[in-house]
Amino acid sequence: MKILVASHTYIVDLNCEKLRSLTHLAPDIEVTVVVPKQWNPGGVQSKKIETQPKKEGRFRVVPISNFSQNNQSLLSFGADIMPLLREFRPHIIHVEQGAKSIGYAELITLNRVLKLKAKNVFFTWWNLPYKVKFPLSLLERYNLRHTHGLVVGNQDGADILKDHGYRGPTCVMPQLGVDEHLFKPQRQPDLATQQGIKPTDFVIGFVGRFVEEKGLLTLFTALTKLQNHPPARPWKLLLLGRGPLKEKLQTQAIRSGIADRIIWIESVPHDDVPRYINLMDTLVLPSETTYQFKTLSAAGWKEQFGHVLIEAMACKVPVIGSDSGEIPNVIKTDGLVFPEGDAAALAERLALLMAQPEQQQTLAELGYRRAMSEYTNRALAERLLAFYQTLF
Length: 392
Description:
By secondary structure, this protein is of the alpha/beta class. The chain folds into two domains: 191 residues, Rossmann fold; 186 residues, 3-Layer(aba) Sandwich (Rossmann fold), CATH 3.40.50.2000. The chain has 14 helices and 18 strands. An eight-stranded mixed β-sheet has the order 5-6-2-1-9-10-11-12, with helices on both faces. The protein has a six-stranded parallel β-sheet with strand order 15-14-13-16-17-18, with helices on both faces. Strands 3-4 form a two-stranded antiparallel ribbon. The longest helix is centred in the C-terminal third of the chain and has 18 residues. The model has no long low-confidence stretch (mean pLDDT 95). Pfam families: Glycos_transf_1 (PF00534). One of its GO terms (molecular function) is glycosyltransferase activity. This is Glycosyltransferase.
């Protein structure tokens, strides 16, 4: 099977592991990844990324000239994509730019013009209800009508596209897996000492952006409740990340009397993130939906997946998440879920793990097994290949 994947995501080599894994599943699988030659993710003020070709056995990355250098929906490719399609003649054309993507429409059209007879597949993360106005409605209708298979990062996204008329095969799975060689259980006694963490401390962790929709204000309120009703074990909060909410969080921590329990880690290289996750007794993702469903406004946000959850699970760190977006489907019964914005419920979940070390260990083991069986790059590659095979 010859698979062509087009996306700006795979400019980053680390993101290619799932696609590399596809070529290891069978000797007849070839994967060609089309990426834009130039990409400028931060807009006009940031430095452009100049992509380079790469070939590793039956896996290769091919930069193609592109229009739009920082908008995935507007991304489309130059004429140099045509000889690549003629030469490679893929069985699957998989575009990861969304339902209203110009690039997807372009590749659908080239598939037809060049008579490749490939199956058209696209991926999307979008999980908020939306209305499409002319002329985008025509573009989306064209794309959905010629789609043979949908891969979507969350169940909400699958339901929304069904409402927009898509009736074909669907596979719900994240775009990227977890690297089990990097994210793995590994004690960090020296790092714990360096951060002032004692063996008796229960470490509550958060990794991500310091913004209101990530629910950090609710987390701080929950921790204040723990402060007022001391749990069985002393605790500390380890925050790994940065963002505009930091000053407000610091002020709230001082007012609540918990400032001395908080460890702030601005940011670390990706390879160091597992070391800090391994300091945690639980990782909390208290995301909060900001989308206004009544108005169907384009503004707002809802958790699309929560990749840090599977990274923690791979490190045998039990997870607690809100019920925003895809989080409950990621955690299922292998962690704890609470109603988003409910600080009292979150405090109860934290107190439960502090008081019951055996429950903490059970959830750690359950989460680890699910991460290894469902969310490694190899596991995602196997699921994706099985989905491709159903399209023929």
